[in-house]
């Protein structure tokens, strides 16, 4: 079969030097065919985005060659045809949004092909419907949430009807429902004969592909099926880890040794769980060890908060409506909900970027509806790491960027020491990164720098908007461990996230939003065990909670409210001691 895209011994260095000892890509040879669904995996900085940008001629090999339907990307006269045939959804969707309304942006590509107006209209309508943006077609793109922007970027590519679609971390900012929509769309594209190439860090998404390609330090180290990949012992060496269902299945095998070794999905895992020899009535409740609601000290209180963007204009958009929130001292509180539910808007009220139009917000001693309270005062207390790291970068070099906050707000220790400490907290080597240009970093590295720049201020409260988006599995685990340690040391954390596994690991308490209103709230374990209510919000309960619930129905004495693998395994080992080996 003739390849749609072929890479032949491709080496690439950003400085153009063929003798560079550390090229971004090194001797890469790959072929991608019609109707193929392939994922490209690897740690942050492994070369995934660099590879993706070679596939439609955005980057040209330093050595070797790339052909697209037989056309050599080194021939710049072919770039127009190549980019019609290979559409790309970028990691940062705002990089490819050019128009002033959603439908105009989707129409931009077909208009430049010179298509008849009726054909353009048909393509625009189909693309907008495919990504679920019908209600937003007349909105300005800058008024969309990050997840909605990703949907818009995808619609713009679909309207071009390419033969290959390359997704570069294109589901990073999507909620679980949005990710399911995107993956279903990828399956439809593959069924229609297109090749789908998907750069991702999400191992659950990778499990759905036909083929997995792994990069490490710019070289291809694996090319096979996801099922083969997740049984590899070298996953950790490549900065990867198996999907939650595969990882939990491996851990459960210590208790249930006869579990199949090739489990790939949550459904396969749930269907393979054994029954006990002696069923028993499981306990109903376990405590998270926190203080009773009445005894807690509230460091953040939000009451009946309302916020409308572009208030008083025809484009007014209600983002928050009578929203409420209480964050207790020494605890982590998660904000969850689908894209556009108001999470980021609420976070921006908690450090004074946005001020209440109606309602009250108190952060520590500061009442933010009081105009006498300055944003500078609030920032010292509550530091915000934004959804898009570049939104808060001021400097060219990493070290200067991390030093920016303490330099502006004052620092009671040598600035270099503070910067070094902050970089160590997020796993960035001081000497290796301090003189790097911020615009040369990978998406995950930029997120680490953004977090370090806020930690360098040493706020009491840390506000995080999608803190693990774009991070490879190893970096994600390191960041979560760092954040857990900070909470254990007394810091309060408020995070918004679409990653329910991360929320289960980190958060004590949880507030779920729907269309700017409170939908569910309480301790995270209590909320996640409301399975149907969680799913109605477009979210998915953590895998450990689903497994615990299934074990309870089989007769194992596992308590309710279990939401982490660690807690599940602890209780399950005790159950086996009492109830005997599984049958």
UniProtKB/TrEMBL annotation:
Specify whether Cell inner membrane is a keyword of the entry: no
Lineage of the source organism? Bacteria, Bacillati, Chloroflexota, Anaerolineae, Anaerolineales
**UniProt similarity note:** Belongs to the ABC transporter superfamily.
Task: Please state what the protein is called.
Answer: Energy-coupling factor transporter ATPase
What InterPro entries does its record include?
A: AAA+_ATPase, ABC_transporter-like_ATP-bd, ABC_transporter-like_CS, ABC_transpr_CbiO/EcfA_su, ECF_ABC_transporter_ATP-bd, EcfA_1, P-loop_NTPase
Write one Gene Ontology MF term: ATPase-coupled transmembrane transporter activity
GO CC, sorted alphabetically, is: ATP-binding cassette (ABC) transporter complex
Question: What keywords would UniProt list here?
Answer: ATP-binding, Cell membrane, Membrane, Nucleotide-binding, Translocase, Transport
């Amino acid at each position: 079969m003739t390849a749609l895209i072929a890479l032949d011994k491709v080496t690439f260095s950003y400085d153009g030097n063929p003798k560079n000892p550390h090229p971004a890509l090194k001797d890469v040879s790959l072929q991608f065919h019609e109707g193929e669904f392939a994922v490209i995996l690897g740690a942050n900085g492994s070369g995934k985005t660099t590879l993706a940008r070679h596939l439609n001629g955005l980057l040209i090999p330093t050595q070797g060659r790339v052909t697209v339907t037989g056309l050599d990307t080194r021939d710049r006269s072919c770039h127009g045809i190549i980019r019609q045939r290979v559409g790309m959804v970028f990691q940062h969707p705002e990089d490819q949004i050019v128009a002033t309304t959603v439908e105009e942006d989707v129409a931009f590509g077909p208009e430049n092909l010179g298509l008849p107006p009726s054909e353009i209209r048909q393509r625009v309508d189909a693309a907008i419907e495919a990504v679920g943006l019908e209600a937003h077609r007349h909105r300005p793109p800058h008024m969309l949430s990050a997840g909605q922007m990703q949907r818009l970027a995808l619609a713009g590519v679909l309207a071009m009807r390419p033969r290959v679609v390359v997704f570069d971390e294109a589901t990073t900012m999507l909620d679980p429902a949005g990710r399911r929509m995107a993956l279903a769309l990828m399956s439809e594209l593959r069924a229609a004969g297109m090749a789908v190439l998907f750069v991702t860090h999400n191992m659950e998404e990778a499990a759905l592909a036909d083929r997995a390609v792994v990069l490490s330090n710019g070289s291809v180290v694996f090319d096979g099926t996801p099922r083969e990949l997740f049984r590899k012992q070298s996953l950790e060496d490549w900065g990867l880890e198996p999907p939650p269902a595969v990882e939990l299945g491996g851990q459960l095998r210590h208790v249930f040794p006869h579990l199949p070794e090739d489990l790939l999905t949550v459904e396969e895992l749930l269907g393979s769980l054994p029954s006990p020899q002696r069923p028993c009535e499981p306990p109903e409740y376990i405590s998270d060890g926190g203080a009773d609601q009445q005894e807690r000290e509230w460091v953040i209180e939000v009451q009946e908060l309302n916020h409308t963007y572009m208030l008083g204009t025809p484009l007014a958009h209600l983002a928050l409506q009578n929203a409420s929130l209480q964050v207790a001292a020494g605890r982590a509180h998660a904000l969850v909900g689908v894209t556009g539910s108001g999470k980021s808007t609420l976070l921006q009220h908690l450090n004074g970027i946005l001020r209440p139009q109606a309602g009250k917000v108190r952060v520590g001693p500061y009442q933010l509806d009081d105009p006498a309270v300055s944003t500078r005062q609030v920032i010292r207390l509550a530091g915000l790491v934004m959804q898009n790291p570049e939104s808060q970068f001021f400097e060219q070099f990493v070290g200067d960027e991390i030093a920016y906050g303490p330099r502006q707000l004052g620092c009671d220790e040598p600035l270099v020491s503070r910067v070094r400490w902050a970089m160590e907290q997020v796993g960035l080597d001081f000497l290796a990164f301090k003189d790097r240009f911020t615009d040369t970093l990978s998406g995950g590295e930029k997120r680490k720098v953004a977090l370090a720049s806020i930690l360098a201020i040493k706020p009491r409260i840390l506000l995080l908007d999608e803190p693990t988006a774009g991070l490879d599995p190893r970096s994600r685990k390191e960041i979560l461990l760092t954040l857990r340690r900070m909470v254990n040391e007394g810091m309060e954390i408020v995070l918004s996230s679409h990653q329910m596994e991360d929320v289960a690991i980190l958060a004590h308490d949880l507030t779920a939003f729907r269309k700017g209103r409170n939908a569910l709230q309480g301790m995270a374990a209590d909320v996640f065990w409301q399975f149907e209510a969680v799913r109605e919000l477009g979210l998915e309960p953590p895998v450990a909670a689903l497994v615990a619930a299934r074990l309870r129905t089989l007769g194992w004495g596992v308590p309710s409210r279990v939401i982490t693998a660690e807690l599940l395994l602890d209780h399950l080992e005790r159950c086996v001691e009492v109830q005997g080996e599984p049958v």
